Amino acid sequence: MCKFKIVFLLRQILLSSLLMAASVSSSRLLAEEKLPESLPPLPTVAATAPEDATATLRLQNGFRAELVAAEPLVTDPVAIAYDENGLAYVAEMNDYPYTDPADDKPWADQPSAPIGRIRVLEDIDGDGVYDRSYIFADKLSWPAGVVCFKGGVYVAATPDLLYLKDTDGDHKADIKRVVFTGFRKYNVQAVMNTLQWGLDNKIYAAGSSNGGSIIEAEHPGKPAILRRADFRFEPGNEHFEEVAGGARFGNSFNNWGDRFLCNIRNPVQHVLFPSKYLKRNPYLPLSSMLYDVASSGDAVKVFRISPPESWRVISAERMSSAVSPKPFDSTQPTGYITSSSGVTIYRGAAFPKEFLGNAFVGEVASNLVLRYQLPREGVSYRGVRPYEEKEFMASTDNWFRPVNYANAPDGTLHVLDMYRETIEHPWSLPDDLKARLDLTSGRDRGRIYRLIPPEYPADFVKPPRPQLGKATTAELVQTLENKNGWWRETAQRLLYEQQDKNAILLLKKLLRDSTYPLARLHALWTLQGMDALEIEEIKLVLKDSSPQVRIHAVRLAEPLLATNASLVDVLLDNAKSDDIKLRYQVALSLGEVRSTKVTETLAQLIKKDGKDLWVRSAVLSSLGGVEADFFLNLFKDTQFATSETGLSVVGEVAYVLAAKKETAGIISLLDLLAKPQWNRIQGKQLRRHVVSQLGGGLKRSGSSLTKIASSKDSAGTKLLQEIISQAIQTAENPNAKETERGYAIRLISYTDFKTAKEHLVPLLDPRSPDSIQVAAINTLTAFSNQEVATILLEQYSSFTPTIRTLVVQKLLRRTTWLILLFDAMLEGKVSTSQVSLVRQTIYLKSSNQQIREKAKKLFKRSSPGERKEVVDRYIKTIKTLGDVSRGEAVFKKNCANCHQAGKLGVEVGPHLSTVKSRSIPEMIVNILDPNKEISPNFFTYVVVTESGLTHTGIVASETSTNITLRAAEKKETVIFRSEIDTIQNANQSLMPVGMEKEITPQQMADLIAFIKAQ
């Protein structure tokens, strides 16, 4: 059984192994220096033979691992799918990270030749160990996902998604059809991957982050632009549909259809807010549709038991002569999550009951498998690691690379081990070490394990050898009651493929009579997939004893709600459920119908669950057109409306209403606020908050409070006029509290420029407190008028240094202001040092010729050679670590705005715990030449809105309707996609070049000492 040979390096899971983890990305140490023509290879750790492999594995809870396939039967397994008769289709990513080192093109689309394969494994004698192997298809590019359909398989093979099928029984594909094409072949760690069947009879894929312009090959039309999102398609019509997601390598469902992803340092993420609901209300300020079920970030510890890779040993040796308050040795058997991969939810029946629904995640850089229990918490789950300073599965063999998993037909979990010597992306390794590594070592190896519990549950019945291809329709329907997820899913798939109408009555009987909730769930969706689900079945399931089953009935009821009042009534009853997850789905689905009862129910849900971000967002997504009635319902309960939660909800709804320019609804809201009941103190706070949120939404839509105040004669508009008048008086009153004046000045930003100019320019007087000047500048620059720049530049010389910095930051945001600012710099009135080096680089490459030419006159850029000279000088000067306490002061002054070390600083870039084991020269390069290599997560993007505003930062998150940019001090800006004029990757790190101007060699030694001491 163990004569097989495999390869694969890590594939997408290597996704950012330790070095690539830092925002400063790992350096190509002295890349410009010519390396010696021949360098001795690094010391290697010998591979373990397949027959000895299980002896290297340590598992908890009495589990053991059994080898079911190894080289030469399989190599580089990264994904697997089992057909109805138990044949295993394996995606072999032999071309990871490249076919040949010459193919490696850092930070560019990759030309690597396609040598990946789909392999078919067959178990002849039924013992669960594979005996035969066939190459089903070869010469595939980066194959990373496979799923069965109608006797063939869909395969994710960037740049294509393919359909392959064997029609003559020789286990070789003679049909090869391109379904979709256009996926970008860029970062091998960020390819589309892990195809999975969903309960809704559609195939889901992890889109990862390479993106692309996707075309349906047989129905070409306008490309679908994929950035950071996942996608799905229905087999048969094969229509491409973007869905929420965008994590790296992994894509899994639990028994109830909840979908989970993982993303390098986010081991378990729940896709919690489907894109279609967000698109329904594009102004909903929800920055992410994913929820981190488990702890995530750069400082989540893992506990490896394997020896260090040789390149890590060398890195430690480089530090050995350094003086340090603690021994920092990268060979210690502890580390951090840097390469989460292959998250899979266990859905079998062979393991003890407490394992059902658990998530298993690979940490390939550390040769181990994490286990997370997932108890329900609110509308989602909470990830719990059940072991203290140990992991569920770990190996002493550092070739063990558990990249993915699968629920097998026998009820166990299979582990796909790529078995590679090195798990590092070539872009992340220093050149001197990379030249001594063979990143393809192990390409001829690979293993698949079956995890076996110490004993099977008492009620476990070992499944027979799969032969569902020969099953009758009645047998397939009966299989929906199987306790093993693979059998239920495969039976549903076959019923969907066959579309045998004889199944309908059997499915309806199962839906009505089965005592097993999961069987009823599969019957429900199978009927839907056969276009045989009727209203009566939906009504029946809306009263199911299982809230989890009812959630799916609510989803299936959505398209019928507008034409079936009785169905709406049954749906509304579910809003009273004790299960918040069911109430959450009801809140989402009610957006498909309008009625007084529906609006009342949405208000009741907010009162009950408004503290929960997800339920609140669900309600807001469902309010289109009924906001006024919703307010009326909320305002009946003055205690709730004026509570912290009530204020938050009312403000968010007001903002969205204003952003949509719903003038009638805005006036109706103001009329409600004009009622005497809000004259008390708490009521005045509500008025103040709502007007402020209305102003923000109106500003975003290009309107203003002034326009609303003059649009109609009503109690509400009169109230608004009074509030604006009071704000002007307060802003100009030097005796008023600064906080009150600050609020009043901000409110004026929502009026018109004439009003703002008249009342705020006098406040720019140096005798005004700094806080008032800052508020006035923020308000004036909220208007796009060119005169704003003229006013601020005329008074620039009288401003304090702090105010000058603010003025420059504001004037850099608009093209028309920027040109005036550059003119002032050319005249010597404003210092160029006020412009960050990142922005200087952006302006030097601007598509606007006028900006580009002025920038060339203003900003001198150091050449690569000059930068190398600076780096070399620091490396030669700094041989030992400096003083930790002095280094803390250097960190606070220069780094804390974007980095966190220990508990100090702000985590915009990666936590610096991930880089403390690097050598002194590597860290010097990282700090002084941060653009040498930049992890994809930390590129600076430039976004210009249609109103002319320019924003810069890293993309912290994105949804189908907005993106969130994060800048220094973790300041985040949410930008709606509808507002974006252009978006461009600046190919720059947020970390500025030229830190040598701020940090002397001695301070650098101190800073590095401080980082290493954390």
Features:
1014 residues, alpha+beta, 33 helices, 19% strand, disordered N terminus
Report on the structure:
With 1014 residues, the chain is α+β, with helices and mostly antiparallel strands. Helix content is 33%, strand content 19%. The chain has 33 helices and 38 strands. The protein has a 6-stranded antiparallel sheet. Strands 1-28-25-24-23 form a 5-stranded antiparallel sheet, with no helix packed on it. A 5-stranded antiparallel sheet has the order 37-36-35-34-38, covered by helices on one side. A hairpin with a 5-residue loop joins β3 and β4. α5 (473-479) runs parallel beside α7 (503-513). The longest helix has 21 residues, at 681-701. The chain is globular.
Topology record:
Layout: H1 50-53, E1 57-59, E2 64-70, E3 77-82, E4 88-92, E5 116-122, E6 132-140, E7 143-149, E8 152-157, E9 160-165, E10 175-183, E11 193-197, E12 203-206, E13 212-216, E14 224-226, E15 230-233, E16 241-243, E17 252-253, E18 259-263, E19 266-271, H2 275-280, E20 290-292, E21 301-303, H3 310-319, E22 334-336, E23 340-345, E24 359-363, E25 368-372, E26 376-377, E27 380-381, E28 393-395, E29 402-407, E30 413-417, H4 431-434, E31 447-452, H5 473-479, H6 485-498, H7 503-513, H8 517-529, H9 535-541, H10 547-557, H11 565-573, H12 580-589, H13 596-609, H14 613-621, H15 627-635, H16 638-641, H17 644-659, H18 663-673, H19 681-701, H20 705-709, H21 715-732, H22 738-748, H23 753-760, H24 770-780, H25 787-794, H26 801-811, H27 815-826, H28 837-844, H29 849-858, H30 864-877, H31 884-894, E32 900-901, E33 904-905, H32 920-928, E34 939-945, E35 950-958, E36 962-966, E37 972-976, E38 980-989, H33 1001-1012
Antiparallel strand pairs: 1-28, 2-31, 3-4, 4-5, 5-6, 7-8, 8-9, 9-10, 10-13, 11-12, 12-15, 13-14, 15-16, 17-18, 18-19, 19-20, 21-22, 23-24, 24-25, 25-28, 26-27, 29-30, 30-31, 32-33, 34-35, 34-38, 35-36, 36-37
Helix pairs in contact: 5-6, 5-7, 6-8, 7-8, 8-10, 9-10, 10-12, 12-14, 13-15, 15-18, 17-19, 18-21, 21-22, 22-24, 23-24, 24-26, 25-27, 27-29, 30-32, 31-33
